[in-house]
Amino acid sequence: MRGMVVMKASCIVWLLAASLSAADLKSSVDKLLGTVPSGGKAAVVVFDLDRQKLLYSAHGGVPMSPASLVKLTVSACALHQFGSTYTMSTTLVAMGGSPRDGVCPQLGVIAGGDPCLDEHFYDQDPDRAFVEWAQALKARGITRIAGDIVIDGSRFSGPIRPDTYPQDPENQQRWYSAPASAFAWNDNCIEVRVVPTRAGEPCTVQLRPRSSRVVVRNLTKTVATRGDSNITVSRDPNANTVTVSGSYSRASDWFEVAIHSDPDLLTGDHLRSILVGAGIAVGGKVRLGAVPADAPVLVATSHDLLPALTILNVRSQNFYGEMLLRQLGVARVGEGSISAGCTAVDTVLRELVGPDVSGYTVLDGCGLSYDNVACADFFARLLWSIHTSPMAAEYVSTLKREDSGAVKGYVKTGSLAIASNLAGYLDRPRKGGRVCFAILLNRGTARGFAWGSTLRERLFQALCRGIE
Fold it and tell me: Quick one: pLDDT at residue 17?
């Protein structure tokens, strides 16, 4: 008879065990949420993707700060829009005619908004990308660039960083506030290293990118013993001027601060320095300008999207989020700006999760803006939508592994001074199947937020025990 279900005894036992597990999950999470201090905000949603069943929900529709969980959406939109085989490229071309007798009239750079010209893709040596370009030019017989190096960074436009980022000088100079630009190198940061000289004398301050547009105030001192263990560097609020101070008896590690302005030009200056160091003379200056797309190609470098998404999600690299946001803007709106990128994300999300994207409003590509808003229900819907799409396996591969007991986790964290969030997938070890979840904890009006990270971890462990 249609609609009739016959259950074996083993199936009844399984269902009973599942209901007990669900009850345990609810009891454990409810108890933990009861520890949220007055004024604090918390939301938890857990959904069984294979059984299409909501396992737990508390405050899932409450608007909260998503912090870096924004990267979950940007990476999903990028993968949906471009596909995993998409590449981002930078091309060096000959301007003013083809090279003759080892001389290139001008060197043009067609910047494609590639975020990957950094240590992550060059064995911890960001210079290597440009060294390889120099080698490729020399292999073509080029020993001199008679004129300028012209940077075409027109793929991106508008402000180089969101004005919704925290505006205090401390946040503005930190690496996580680095700007986006079409010709970006080394995550668009200024790196500083101190090398002692003779006792009593100033240290040598090494800099990259090597550019006269960066001014260094060297207040350091070389000492024989017991020097500072950490480098002291600050960048002026409104300039590419760095102040280095302290006493040093040994060389420091590289320390990075965000570029304030002109990232395309600073990158071009560093390229020029590398070329000259490799024996390619440069007669002109580095400047911005239009570069003909049909000029003779000298060197072309590209990087795959999927590894870039892994850097975005696993390392939570804000710079990658802002670069990819602008790439989405170019693809969907025809403009590589912040506003175009946010419009593009909204459009792509409607294709991924449906026309209703309520509960999600963001102002950047990384989640650093404190006025971003999202809810736990939205992230559960997003993760469910990806799970049912052809890109599911590739997307999960970009997430951070976070296991608990026998449960395998694929997660993204999201942290600010006011937020401690976690979302992703959990794989059951024995029952099989996959669960998606979202944990959003915000300070709200609570007197402090020391409880946030601890509670987030305890909730994650409780979810893993509850589904195991």
Answer: 40
Prior bond of 209 cis (ω within 30°): yes
Question: Distance between CA atoms of 374 and 354, rounded to whole angstroms?
Answer: 16
Quote the CA–CA distance of 358 and 360 in Å, as a whole number. 6
Q: Are 227 and 247 in contact (CB under 8 A)?
A: yes
Classified as helix, coil or strand, 176 is: helix
Domain residue limits, the chain: 25-83+306-467, 87-305
**CATH match for 25-83+306-467 among 2.60.40.1120, 3.90.1150.10, 3.30.70.2740, 3.40.710.10:** 3.40.710.10
Q: How far is CA 314 from CA 282, 309, 436, in A?
A: 39, 8, 18
pLDDT band at 22 (very low <50, low <70, confident <90, very high): low
Q: What is the pLDDT of residues 261-280, one digit of tens each?
A: 999 999 999 999 999 999 99
* Selection from 407, 404, 466 nearest residue 18 by Cα: 466
Place of tokens 């000259």: 276
Sequence-distant (6+) residues with CB within 8 A of 171 are 165, 177
Model-level pTM greater than 0.85? yes
What is the amino acid identity at position 403?
Answer: D
Whose CA is closest to 55, among 27, 83, 13?
A: 27
Superfamily (CATH H level) for 87-305 = D-Ala-D-Ala carboxypeptidase C, peptidase S13 (3.50.80.20)
SS3 category, 160:
coil
Segment 338-379, tens digit of pLDDT: 999 999 999 999 999 999 887 899 999 999 999 999 999 999
The answer to whether residue 65 scores a pLDDT higher than 70 is: yes
351's CB contacts (< 8 A; 6+ apart) are 80
Alpha helices in 34-168, H assignment, sequence order: 70-82, 128-139
- Please give the Cα distance from 42 to 382 (Å, whole number): 19
> Alpha carbon of 299 to those of 84, 109, 121: distances in Å?
24, 10, 18
